[in-house]
């Protein structure tokens, strides 16, 4: 199968590596140093117990890619999604499947502008990976993926064969919203307060804030035809600040973007999405409004 | 007149200095270095056009003061008010008047635990001053005070005679709440985001957040018998981020406490008061809840 991975950051490069065992895999990126180094020296990849150099992957600058492919896997930053699809629209044939595992809300509408609905496979990924520098990634956990769509089974077979555990579910939207609640709580608030998740443990009003944010996401989800389980989601959110959760000492990805790399965040696809849709539907979303306001002030201050 | 100023920080020391021209003024404080230096070397005071050394003021550690006085002026931090009044309760005779110009809400109830209601004069002060170190203050503006109460006229006469412009108003509660809205917006948010007021100018959703916070304060004010003018207050709040407002480049006092001096803040007497009262009255106050949560997480992180 011929696969194009869009975005050769931590996640994109890790998926490209695993898939390249049995498939022809190309990656496109906008970071020239990354593209050149993958082509020149191969992709350096560190897995749990081994480190190797993958020289099977070809890399291109996004605007230079002109081939038709069977499967496109999207791993750009949310705010780059629309622009990337526009640049790459000639890559899609009638049979090209598109897999989106990005965090955040509203991506399916963006993808539908360029790809027919039945070819889109949506999902979530619990794989974790880190970027050490150009053409240098660490795949720190295999986690698993959960996907749905007309061609989900076909895509899952490819991923499973490559060693990326992937389950097909009848509707992944609930999982997407649940994960958005998690990110809309911790990604945003840990970025605003420059804290780890564990720093929030036992904080005054924590449970109220967690439930309030989930409630706002749920009201918008209902309007968009998704009814995720609030109690189950709260339990997943609640556990994250406790020492039972081994990731609680980490800084979430939005913190890395804004605080460490002075980059814009994905707020518009998390709390900002809820805030914007709340205004469209006439639903008050004060928590998400204030969080979005705060993140945008911080972006204005630190993004170069 | 014999006057005791409680708290010899920037404001307390400035008031003590001005009042000491025509009155016997003592100050009490909990900071030994400050007390000792005032007694040993006098209070160094810088006014707009002059710098002098006031040796007329006697200073005491709070627990050592045992005299009866005619007027007590409270200039401790809000969170120290109850404890200070308890320590000093033997200072009040039946005729002792108590003046409170502190920022924040709920102080009158605390004072009433120790002083009969008719002897209490409440107000706001627009005087600004800074503390340079022990026994060393800068009185940067004379501003004015606004007070009300049975003995407001008598207290205003003393303040005016000392060169501190003071107006008597029939009810100062509206001004106290208006000022609390200003502080509940900028003190808290500039502390959370580590920004100046001017950094918020033109921020996404700014006007909605400003109006939302004022609305929450107003709902609690109504429950407590105060109906301040929301539109007038919004206009005062709105102007604060603009370059027309010469203070917009400053960091508010809560920022100084938490970010600069790693001290606890007055949040419980601003947004935290609204949040707590909202729960008592069954009124949702999501903005104040989230702001209080955020400030308390930051306090937990930085207060030594």
From TrEMBL, chains A, B:
Every Ketopantoate reductase N-terminal domain range: 3-146
Enzyme Commission code: 1.1.1.169
Source taxon at top rank: Bacteria
Ketopantoate reductase C-terminal domain segment(s): 171-297
Catalytic activity: (R)-pantoate + NADP(+) = 2-dehydropantoate + NADPH + H(+)
Keyword tags: NADP, Oxidoreductase, Pantothenate biosynthesis
UniProt record, GO biological process: pantothenate biosynthetic process
Endpoints of the signal sequence: none
Ranges annotated as spanning the membrane: none
Cellular-component GO terms for this entry: cytoplasm
GO molecular function (one): 2-dehydropantoate 2-reductase activity
Metabolic or biological pathway: Cofactor biosynthesis; (R)-pantothenate biosynthesis; (R)-pantoate from 3-methyl-2-oxobutanoate: step 2/2
InterPro entries xrefs: 6-PGluconate_DH-like_C_sf, 6PGD_dom2, ApbA, KPA_reductase, KPR-Related, KPR_N, NAD(P)-bd_dom_sf
Functional note: Catalyzes the NADPH-dependent reduction of ketopantoate into pantoic acid.
Similarity field: Belongs to the ketopantoate reductase family.
Full protein name: 2-dehydropantoate 2-reductase
Species of the source: Sneathia vaginalis
